[in-house]
Design a protein that fits this description.
The longest helix is centred in the N-terminal third of the chain and has 30 residues. It is built from 19 helices and 4 strands. A hairpin with a 6-residue loop joins strand 3 and strand 4. The mean pLDDT is 83. The chain has one domain: MFS general substrate transporter like domains (Growth Hormone, Chain: A), CATH 1.20.1250.20. It is mainly alpha-helical.
Amino acid sequence: MKNEERVNYLYVIGITLVATLGGFLFGFDSGVINGTVKGLESAFNTEEIGSGFNVASMLLGCAVGAFFAGRLADLYGRRSMLIVAALFFIVSAWGSGIATSSLEFIVYRILGGLAVGAASVMAPAYISEVAPAKYRGALATVQQVAIITGLFLSFLSNYQLANISGSAENPLWLDFETWRWMFWMELIPASVFLISLLFIPESPRYLVAKQHLDKALKVLSRLYGAVAGQSKVDEIDASLAKDHHKPRLSDLYDKTLGRVKPIVWIGIGLASFQQFVGINVVFYYGAVLWQAVGFGENDALLINVVSGALSIGAVVAALVLVDKIGRKPLLLIGSVGMSITLAMVVIAFSSGALVTDAVTGEETLQLSDNMGMLALIAANLYVVFFNASWGPVMWVMLGEMFPNQIRGLGLAIAGLAQWGSNFLVTLTFPMLLGSSGLAFTYSLYTIGGIISIFFVIKYVYETKGKELEEMEG
């Protein structure tokens, strides 16, 4: 950091916290579905593939939202895309609760997915573009703290509401089913997010790219001081294409080598492997998962709350370590830890026996007390390893690893890959659970974890402490 820089930390932290409300809603919107699955199945008469699509439908919107938000952010700005996302969160939360058919519900969930996808790529990009390099990793990791906090509070909200009514399927206030109120709870943070966004500036790097140099200087001067602000404007301007053309897909292609730039493939790999370890099966189907191994609905929802609390602690650890030991070491530790704990879960599930309920005729996997405890501990350790590594670090790296000229484009492609992989894993889980069982399903995620170890070792490079203007394609 230059000697003349005088970072306005309160301002940086303030606008970071506003941006991370998008992460909070990302987590809340992703997690709220967890406790509503049984209510949705009852209300819309859907099972397995239908239920899987109700849950996964949001992810289609996420993939589209991430891709187009990355592209549109280069045209209209990072803050503008976050404002659009906030509006979509509000519409989706209200609509998901008033839906009277599976099709109507899916439409509103896809709208929510557009918001989540946009927020998932824009919040870390915005934070990276306003944060000083020395603390960029920690500030960007606050995004994951917000995501996990959103997940945790959605689990807690679901648990409390179901506790009041007795079940997600039972009527609650004003004679509306409890699962509808689970969605409506999101209206509160979504409204706060929209209002807060009106008080933060546009990304200075976007402003320089659009040649709004005076506006960029005003923002950077407030962030770093007048002298450092002018120097930063010049550095950002120099890092862009010499002809100052608008970002275009051809910028991702290396004409000298005659191929797509390696950084694009690394971004796709990071985004995909984060999902191929199966983490969102725990987030979206946690209640169903624990009911499948013998826990009651309330106990299963309570386990989700415990997992959420452990996740927050793990992300805080990542926040402390990411700018000290770096991004690559954390990813490697996470890959090894997840592979081991997933293997332990597979061992526990493979020891169980299928038992048919005499009343409902449903088959459930029954584990011994020891194996049930092993599954519970290993699954929660797996969540801790994920949230201390791949959970936050993948988003940190995607927000900072691309050069200024292609950051929006790179995020668009990586975001599409991330949510596409998420959709694939989420959609197939109920089918795999029904046809092959938990042990086989989790063995696939274990393989994903093992492959990610070699990917990190061979392809991922360190970005700790580098200015965004130093990033190469």
